């Protein structure tokens, strides 16, 4: 049994999909499948069963998962201690991020950091805020970039503040206006972000302050999915101002309430950080804070 087999097994269990796991850990899906098959052969039991939605753990897989995670955590701790003794910033950094940061902002940060720290490999995984916070609590990632609710067990540093805008279909009654108030949307069907997305709570808070609760017609996870549903005429939405909005037939209207969404760099307050994680946090602070 090899360490990489455990890493692949935990990745598939976390993502509940061979394809998503392969994308997250940057290996080919056939190589991942072969590794899992070999692990199942070594153990003499099936670990996953395929479903219409992806895969789920068998009872054997559920029994094996906590031990696999513990083994990987022990190895990571050992590597971290050796790195600390050597005084070198080497190793792998697990970073989680909300979907909207995968195509803008964070790639430039990662590129600059790895250029100045060539001994570091950064592995990225994308998920909604609540999923990222769960991964943080379980030790599956070192640092998350998301929109969390404040909590005493989390260290949060604001690294980005984005303007929120209303978007409507091109044939909507508001489409010819440059701006609107949130109350102009009060009686409209909303395309909302999924509840596990931190931005959902930010938008609902602004709407509550304006005196209404959005009437949700449909939900999406990613910015472009939400915008695509608006373009299809499902409803209106409030989203971060993003240059990619110009790719879709929607009309963006400035909100007169000046609504914003803050994105934070988040890490666990009670978990010791590796030298690599400490270096990365310091680097991001220097890049993003005045």
UniProtKB/TrEMBL annotation:
Any one of the GO CC terms: protein-DNA complex
Keywords assigned: DNA-binding, Transcription, Transcription regulation
Ligase listed as a keyword: no
Single GO term (MF): DNA binding
Top-level lineage group: Bacteria
Gene3D superfamilies, A to Z: 3.40.190.290, Winged helix-like DNA-binding domain superfamily/Winged helix DNA-binding domain (1.10.10.10)
HTH lysR-type domain span: 1-58
Stored InterPro entries: LysR_HTH_N, LysR_subst-bd, WH-like_DNA-bd_sf, WH_DNA-bd_sf
Protein family per UniProt: Belongs to the LysR transcriptional regulatory family.
Protein name as it appears in the record: DNA-binding transcriptional regulator, LysR family
Species lineage: Bacteria, Bacillati, Bacillota, Bacilli, Bacillales
């Amino acid at each position: 049994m090899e360490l990489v087999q455990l890493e692949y097994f935990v990745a598939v269990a976390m993502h509940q999909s061979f394809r998503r796991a392969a994308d997250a850990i940057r290996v080919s899906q056939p190589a991942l499948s072969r590794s899992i098959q070999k692990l199942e052969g070594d153990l003499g039991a099936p670990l996953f069963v395929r479903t219409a939605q992806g895969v789920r753990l068998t009872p054997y897989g559920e029994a094996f998962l906590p031990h696999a995670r513990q083994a990987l955590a022990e190895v990571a701790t050992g590597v971290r201690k050796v790195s600390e003794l050597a005084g070198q910033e080497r190793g792998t950094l697990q970073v989680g991020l909300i979907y909207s940061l995968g195509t803008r902002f964070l790639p430039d940060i990662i590129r600059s950091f790895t250029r100045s720290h060539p001994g570091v490999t950064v592995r990225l995984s994308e998920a909604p805020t609540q999923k990222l916070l769960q991964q943080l609590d379980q030790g599956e990632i070192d640092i998350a970039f998301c929109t969390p609710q404040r909590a005493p067990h989390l260290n949060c540093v604001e690294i980005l503040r984005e303007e929120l805008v209303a978007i409507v279909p091109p044939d909507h009654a508001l489409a010819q206006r440059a701006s609107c108030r949130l109350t102009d949307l009060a009686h409209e069907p909303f395309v909302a972000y999924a509840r596990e997305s931190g931005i959902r709570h930010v938008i609902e808070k602004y709407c509550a302050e304006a005196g209404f609760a959005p009437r949700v017609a449909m939900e999406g996870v990613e910015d472009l999915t939400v915008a695509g549903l608006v373009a299809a005429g499902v409803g209106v939405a409030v989203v971060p101002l993003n240059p990619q909005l110009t790719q879709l037939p929607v009309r963006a209207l400035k909100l007169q309430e000046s609504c914003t969404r803050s994105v934070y760099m988040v890490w666990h307050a009670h978990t010791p950080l590796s030298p690599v994680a400490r270096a990365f946090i310091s680097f991001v602070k220097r890049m993003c804070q005045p």
